[in-house]
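Hello, quick one for you while I still have it in my head. I'm working through a protein record and want to make sense of it properly. Would you mind checking whether the tokens look sensible for this chain? I owe you a coffee for this, so here goes:
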Amino acid sequence: MRNAIAAYTAALTVRTREAFPQNHAETLFRLGITYQDVNRFDLAYNAFKSAIDTVESLREEIVSGEESKRKQAEHFSQVYRGMVEVCLELGNINQAIEYVERSKTRNLVELLLERDSKTIFPPEVVTQLETYRDEIAIGQDKIQNGKAENPKVLTQHLKELRQQRNKLQDDYLPVGSGFQFDSFQATLDERTAIIEWYFLANKIVAFIFTQEGEATVWQSQPEDREALGNWINQYLQNYYNQKDQWQNRLGEELNKLASILHIDEILAQIPNHCDQLILIPHRFLHLFPLHALPVSQNSENSACLLDLFPRGVSYAPSCQLLQQVQQRQRPDFQSLFAIQNPTEDLNYTDLEVQVIQSYFNTSNVLKKTAATLTAINNTDLNYYHCTHFSCHGYFNLSNPGKSALILANALVADAPTKPDSERYLNLRLGETHDLDKYLTLDKIFALKLGKCRLVTLSACETGLIDFNNTSDEYIGLPSGFLLAGSQAVVSSLWTVSDLSTAFLMMKFYENLQTINSVSLALNQAQQWLRNLTTEEFEALLVKYQPQIEEIFAQLPEEKRRLEKAILERCKRKPHPFAAPFYWAGFTATGI
């Protein structure tokens, strides 16, 4: 080990930060790992800190777009992981959380800061930040194109400008390398608790904190980390290849997940007075309904985690993102924009949207064939307080930017003989769809939802994210709508049932009339659906019989008989929708 330390230390005199910054950071990382291996955690801390400072300085010089920044984050994600491990060894829990945050959702945080700058900062600060941005961009362009008179002097000047810009931003809302855990903690409601997970090389870590007091940390055994990896692989294999088996075993699988995560041990560290919970998953954990994990708390009415928190359980991609969304003021909730059944094959969405529409003073609903991308582009979405998509959704595992909400007029009648794989999609047997006519994540990023309090994605797989990338970015449809301006996004974690989703959504919006919290309104709707009796369900069918008969009347005879048979099967006793498949699939992200 001494030889390795000496070799890396010598290499740093050649691979200097000024001459070879990337190699410098990589060498510091290896030096930090070596110190870590011999339990010199103080020296490992210094090496990792210098590496991260170099990496973040390099990140600020990237001008080729978000993808380059994401790739850089993937390359150096292990440096942050090593730093978190060392901070925990040294007992610096708050610093560990800060480095967790510095590694998470950096692109999204920076894009949100830029998009919301005029509401976060005073006018004179916005002007100054724009001046910094323009001057930095001009300087970077000169260096890249070889037009700088003295590149070394200009590089130093740009570095100073970035430092001045960051300091000015951090005076109002510290993010990225300036994120301060203490400042964020003080903004929490006194009865709110947060659980933030993070994966280390051989263990799972959960940070638990409230508005006051020291944050606590729960750490798993290495076998738990291994068990989680095996569980995730089996879950995804069943989900993608054996849907019926996946659906039937979902409750049992959530029991296993609760055991692997030791959820009862984690919950035991939350003070009794906390009645609201925010969950911040990490990577794969974003895919699962953590709010529905079974718990063994001593309460007759507490079947799962969400039952323990009367003011609701919500989700956030990171503390920083939550901090930014909290800056948005969206008090109004009177106007609705909705997409209704664009593919005309979701039988209960017409009923769903009709009922939801009745709760708003003004509404603009694009129905069936009218629900095209062109129609959305021709609508001023900046006007609406709520945007509701009742349609099919699609998550592209290999290219998340092409994940989409499926709209009308996207089906290609004459499929190209050599379809462009980037543009055309074989979504169902014998059907080719044109992605250019979908509302893809790439297009969602460009939307402007300046007054939007809620986006509801009442569709399949709209809450899934890119869990394969190691950059710790949060890439999925919810991130697109948060960036576009919404305070909260409700989305789904799997291919949901059309029937149960319609009734869940109708109850959710009914709750929103009296509950000023998206997560609580959703949680209570989920509990209602889970506990709904067969008799209560039959009463609802009687109440909405005219609308349901109208839906059936539009179906071909064979399809009508099938749908009526499905409806009869849903009258299971005593609780038709008690299985988590029906009620647990939707989550509320944001505030």
